[in-house]
Design goal:
The complex is a heterodimer of chains A (about 190) and B (about 675). With about 190 residues, chain A is mainly α. Chain A has 7 helices and no strands. Chain A is elongated, with a radius of gyration of 34 Å. The longest helix of chain B is centred in the N-terminal third of the chain and has 33 residues. In chain B, α6 packs across α8, α14 runs parallel beside α16 and α18 packs antiparallel against α19. In chain B, the strands form 2 sheets. In chain B, strands 2, 3, 4, 5, 6 and 7 form a 6-stranded antiparallel beta sheet that branches. A 4-stranded antiparallel beta sheet of chain B has the order 1-10-9-8, with no helix packed on it. Classes of the chains: A mainly alpha (about 190), B alpha+beta (about 675).
Chain lengths: ~190, ~675
């Protein structure tokens, strides 16, 4: 192979590689720029055999409120199944999860049993909020414990300030010689710019 | 221009570094030449950042696809408005935008502080320059909007269609204006801690900027809610997404600060706490940015999984360490001057209010971080989801407590409230609150959370009306003014107090609207062309929806699939609604992005009728979801009222001497206005 031929071929290969790389990058860019990065293959089957003589365990509204709004769509969004299946036209995961939920409702399963079934398949991330058990209890309790601790601290601070006031004003300190009307005006003037 | 912009960005980096060094050196050594050089350096930093921004805008508006940022966020057929707003729609641009706003704010703050706050200004300037340096360095090295493509594409990827909404043209800038403004009080807090001058001078400048922060965060959050409601198509306006939480956190702490600062102004108390709130607000703004841009928590926002998370983590840790050191070494200087007379006083009420606001902030932060904490503690392979059910369970009780305190605080006198005073002040608001609840029970409302919310809304509304009534009445008695003139003068003469009450009125509207969602109902309906479906809304009206069929149209960069839907209420045609699905194309006709939802909604003060085109199962079969959302309009009205109240509070007013820490000077004869306030308040 002559030098010119080698250089020409090398240039052609480089150009093709650059174009392919750019096309790949553009394709990736387009995917990355999707409204929400979506995993369309995330749906897994959550099917159970119907209970004997099964009848639907709840109405559609109860299903939506108690089950679909409590289950997290796994497509990569942050929405529940109920919301995602009407919000995102392209999501194939929430319709599949919705179909599973419908089948379980028709199979006579209760809301809790359906939620448990989804947790069995997807793990705890299937739920919109963690179940209040185990370490999750820490999650639920901590804000209230912190608030109670803060309240105790505030009351403690206020009491210490009050005690300081009592110490700072020993008996015999002359009090204000003002009429009730003057005191009322005085209070109001202090309130004036609150 | 683009090249000049790129160069200007690097010059801004150097200028901010220079400003930081000479400002701290000048402040420490008290060298006027260095201090002045620092001021000029800050102005130059702003000028260079502005130039860099103009360079990026030029690249965007001229479709220069040689820049990766332009190719990634713009397409040739995009409307000009969104080409302009794409400046802040991506990571790199938004970082530069942040630096632009911060340098602009800093230049203004330093311009005034250089004459009014000469002791604090050099250190505040140095701190601001350090923050700007961080943002510009992150922009230059990790998220450079001027980075080039190896190959120039024919067209760009275009903007995420959900961002192609007028709300998105305004929401991010206002939110950034709020976020970034937290840096100014922070810088002055650091300066005050360094110089040990935590006095009224510090208070004045910090309060002004805290109001700016609060004002823009409020507008930004409300606009974000509006955008989510009209654009995302999930029939709600708040989902406790980490990005929403990130904007809410500094809002809560700044709101707490704006209340507690009054105690420092009047009584010289809570100095430590106020410094902590200012510092925490800024750190929360940075932490929120880190959380949503690092990918450590799941968010709908596309910034996740970016490489700047580590930089933000390091900056957050560094800034926290520095401020902890400063506060810890200056605790003695921050000791309170005054003491408390009674637990039933306005001061104490403000403390309770602060406790609840900070408690909510903690709960929101905790919920946002809990997936990470849980994964770390349990060693689970995947993170759990902490969504609305968790946040609602934790925050609704605290929110109701906050609402109650909104009504209680203004009714209690400063220093000490007597029993007779409390009885007189509380009587009307309590009657209004109870009457509201009784009326709603009589009308059939049985949701206890909602009932408590409306009882408290009535109570707070009663408080506000009583305050205005007494104030106006006092002016009418003393000045012989009409009710309208008295009202205008009352607000104009005492903007902080009555502007604050107007903000509270906005809060009442928001809570009333939130409680309304307890009565939201949805219906999933499948309609063939010509089919009709009847449903009932929460107010008992009978609705009939008739499908006119599906149609497609083409716009500049969009193909639109829409459903014509006649909406009849109680037998009367009220509107033909058109829910849509839109598919976006680039200039070459290639589809970009997934199809998006465009909802059709009809709004009025009592109820929104909200229709989503959920799917199309055949050429003339549409699946729709109809939601009836009560009182949503009051969210936007409440937000607007809060904005007006905020503007009134912020409006410059000639400084008056405020009564400080004790019965000082108040027995002296006051002006007629003070007498009016006295009559109004007692």
């Amino acid at each position: 192979m002559k030098r010119r031929e080698f250089l020409t071929r090398a240039a052609a290969v480089t150009a093709v590689a650059m174009i392919a790389d750019q096309a790949h990058a553009q394709q990736q860019g387009a995917q990355g720029a999707a409204n929400v990065p979506m995993d369309q293959a995330a749906a897994r089957s959550v099917r159970r055999p119907p209970k004997p003589n099964a009848r639907p365990s709840m109405t559609d509204r109860e299903r939506d409120d108690n089950v679909e709004k409590a289950i997290h769509c796994q497509c990569g969004c942050t929405l529940d199944v109920y919301t995602c299946r009407t919000t995102d036209f392209a999501c194939q995961v929430s319709p599949a999860m919705h179909a599973d939920i419908k089948a379980l409702v028709e199979g006579g399963y209760t809301a809790q049993e359906i939620l448990d079934s989804f947790v069995d398949v997807y793990g705890e991330r299937a739920l919109m909020a963690p179940r209040p058990q185990g370490f999750n209890l820490v999650g639920y309790v901590t804000p209230f414990v912190a608030f109670a601790a803060g309240a105790i601290a505030v009351v403690g601070v206020l009491r210490s300030w009050k005690a300081r006031k009592a110490v700072a004003q020993p008996a015999g300190v002359p009090t204000l010689s003002a009429t009730p009307d003057e005191l009322a005006r005085l209070d109001a003037a202090i309130r004036d710019d609150s | 221009m683009i090249l000049i912009g790129e160069l200007a960005l690097w010059v801004a980096l150097l200028m901010s570094a220079w400003t930081m060094i000479v400002s701290f050196a000048g402040g420490t050594q008290r060298r006027e030449d260095l201090i002045v050089s620092g001021y000029r350096g800050m102005y130059a930093t702003f000028a260079m950042t502005l130039l860099a921004s103009i360079g990026l805008w030029t690249a965007l508006l001229t479709n220069d696809f040689s820049l990766k940022y332009v190719a990634g966020h713009v397409s040739a057929n995009m409307p000009a408005l969104y080409t302009f707003t794409s400046f802040w729609s991506g990571q790199e641009g938004s970082m530069l935008f942040w630096a632009l706003i911060l340098s602009f704010y800093a230049a203004i703050a330093i311009y005034f502080a250089s004459t009014r706050n000469r002791e604090l200004a050099p250190f505040a300037n140095g701190t601001l320059a350090a923050i700007i340096l961080f943002f510009i360095a992150t922009t230059c090295f990790k998220a450079n909007p001027f980075a080039r493509n190896a190959w120039i594409p024919v067209d760009g990827a275009g903007m995420n269609p959900q961002l192609q909404n007028p709300g998105m043209a305004v929401h991010p800038p206002t939110l950034y204006l709020g976020y970034v403004a937290t840096a100014i009080p922070f810088a002055f807090a650091v300066a005050a801690l360094i110089t040990r001058r935590i006095d009224t001078e510090w208070l004045a400048v910090v309060r002004r900027w805290a109001l700016v922060t609060w004002f823009f965060l409020t507008i930004g959050i409300i606009l974000g809610m509006w955008w989510a409601y009209v654009e995302l198509g999930w029939s709600g306006y708040w989902a406790w997404d980490p990005v929403e939480n990130a904007s809410f956190l500094p809002w809560l702490t700044i709101t707490a600060f704006l209340h507690s600062i009054m105690i420092q102004e009047k009584r010289g108390m809570l100095r430590k706490w106020n410094v902590v709130l200012v510092v925490v607000s800024f750190l929360l703004a940075i932490l929120g940015t880190f959380l949503t841009r690092s990918g450590v928590v799941e968010s709908v926002h596309a910034f996740a999984q970016s490489p700047i998370g580590t930089w933000f983590a390091a900056f957050t840790i560094g800034a926290t360490a520095v401020t902890i050191y400063l506060v810890a070494t200056r605790l003695r200087d921050l000791e309170a001057k005054a003491s408390l007379e009674s637990m039933a006083s306005r001061e104490a009420a403000f403390l309770y209010n602060n406790l609840v606001l900070v408690g909510i902030a903690f709960a929101v932060l905790w919920g946002t971080l809990f997936p990470i904490i849980s994964q770390w503690a349990t060693g689970a392979r995947e993170k759990i989801t902490v969504g609305p059910p968790f946040f609602n369970r934790v925050n609704i009780p605290l929110g109701l407590l906050l609402l109650a305190l909104t009504g209680i605080g203004p009714l209690i006198a400063w220093r000490r409230a007597s029993v007779s005073n409390l009885r007189r002040q509380f009587a009307t608001p309590v009657i209004v609150g109870v009457a509201t609840a009784v009326l709603l029970v009589a009308l059939g409302m049985r949701n206890w959370y909602a009932l408590v919310a409306y009882l408290l809304c009535g109570f707070v509304a009663g408080t506000i009306l009583q305050e205005f009534y007494k104030g106006v009445n006092a002016r009418r008695t003393i000045h012989r003014e009409s009710a309208v003139t008295g009202f205008i003068h009352l607000v104009a003469r005492n903007r902080r107090r009555y502007g604050g009450y107007i903000v509270h009125a906005g809060i009442v509207m928001l809570f009333a609207a939130f409680a309304g969602l307890a009565f939201k109902v949805d219906y999933d309906v499948t309609l063939n062309t010509g089919d009709a479906h009847e449903i009932t809304d929460p107010l008992g009206h009978r609705w009939r929806f008739v499908s006119q069929g599906l149609s497609t149209t083409q716009r500049k960069n969009t193909k639109v699939l829409s459903l014509g839907l006649e909406a009849w209420r109680d037998g009367k045609l009220v509107e033909v609604m058109r829910p849509e699905k839109r598919t976006y194309f680039n200039a070459r006709g290639e589809q970009i992005f997934n199809p998006t939802t465009e909802v059709a909604y009809r709004t009025n003060p009592s109820l929104d009728t909200y229709v989503i085109l959920a799917g199309v199962s055949s050429v003339d079969t549409a699946e729709i979801r109809v939601s009836f959302n009560p009182l949503v309009m009051w969210v936007w009205i409440g937000g607007f009222v809060m904005m007006i109240g905020g503007l009134i509070v912020m409006w410059p007013q000639a400084e008056r001497r405020r009564p400080q820490a004790g019965y000082v000077s108040v027995l002296a004869p006051e002006a007629a206005d003070a007498k009016a306030s006295a009559l109004a308040g007692v």
